Amino acid sequence: MNKRKLSFWEIWNMSFGFLGIQFGFALQGGFMSRIFQTLGAAKDDIPLLWIAAPLTGLIVQPVIGYLSDRTWSPKWGRRRPYFLIGAVLSSLALFFVPHSPTLWVAAGFLWILDASINISMEPFRALVADKLPESQRSYGFVVQTLIIGIGTWVASNLPWMVSQFGVSDAAPSGVVPMSVKVAFAIGAFVFLLSILYTVFTTTEYPPEDMEEFEREKAKKNQFIPDIVNNIGSMPMTMKKLGVIQFFSWFAFFTMWSMANPALTEHVFQTPAPIEANYDMTVAAQAEAFNTANTAFQKSSNLVGSYMGTYGLSSMAFALLLVLYTSKRRINRKYVHMGSLILGGIGFLMMKFIPSHEYLTISFVLIGFSWGSILSMPYAMLSSSVDPKKMGVIMGIFNMFIVIPQIVAALGGVNFVSNLIGSEAINAMTVAGISLIIAGIANLLITNPKAITYQTVEE
Known about the structure:
It is found in: Membrane. The chain crosses the membrane at residues 12-36, 48-68, 80-97, 103-121, 141-162, 182-200, 241-259, 303-322, 334-353, 359-380, 392-413, 425-445. It is a multi-pass membrane protein. This is Major facilitator transporter. The chain is mainly α. It has one domain (8-204, 223-451): Growth Hormone, Chain: A, CATH 1.20.1250. Helices cover 72% and strands 0% of the residues. It is built from 19 helices and no strands. The protein starts with 7 loop residues before the first helix and ends in a 7-residue tail after the last helix. Mean pLDDT is 84; it is low at 454-458.
């Protein structure tokens, strides 16, 4: 099928739903560990509490990719029904998660939230490949990254912004502050609204051969064999990208799960107080606990805001790539390599900065790697696979995202960081080393079509 080139605003409209998806991911990534700590989790238990997120991705994304490849509605298209279902479920989960009364309830809501976000997210990757000619693929994924950057920055700052309007950061022991609850409610609204915008402003191409599509759709009990066959026949470029993805996502999972305990403890010197260490029947002890808890909650707001910086710098990085790739070709391999190494340096700096203001520099560098992770691997992959299987291939490719997170959650983070020392900040050092390894692994990519594609007619 000859696909026409789309304008910037057409690509913007079809990608705008990612604003809401990123609101969900940024609130989850920036504040779930804070919620877990508030509800009594020890810092060494936090990675395991996060295991729901990658496990749901491992199961949900290939399934949704497979189903969306076999879906077609003249009114709703192929991918858009999944956007909408995921948005409704994600918005409900976002609203309720900070109201969790106990740790196990919060972990359960994380499971529901991540599964719901994945229902919306996976088809968005396939939509870019569905809608755009190959010459615009890098451009399309970079526009997605631009929108993701905006969402990351705004959502990461929401609890701080809300507290500036007078919403309290203080709360009794075991209760999430109202500033966080309001921020998650705003995130739920934005998630649903942005997905609806894409659903109603974007059309999709019908299957190229409707008769063949209907025959494939009519086949029964093909899901597992198809998944297994596609895994077995994945292109060599996809396998090499899997190595890069493993170390990249190990690093970012480590950040999402451990940045709050690491930075509140090491940089802000306000670790989460442990109630068992205080005699709450003594007024002075109870007051000391409340003072320490409020300090922890306020510094957690700042950690979230600093983390938002990586969204802002990824947005700037994406904007530069948008301007460049709209006119010229890029070497995806070296862009990705350099970006990941810079992000690794940003993580390594955290252990040695003299004050929290320097976290801005760290997260700016991390943002370069984040902007590249969200665009370059998908652009390289989409040039190497059968377009008729784009949904299921993108779903399988996301296994390379969730498997390293599962490894990290099951003890990988704790084991490797404890080799350096017991302080939580060592987890950020592990993230930095992992990201640098991911950058160097780009040297494995040798397929010329994956490395670069002419984005305009010469």
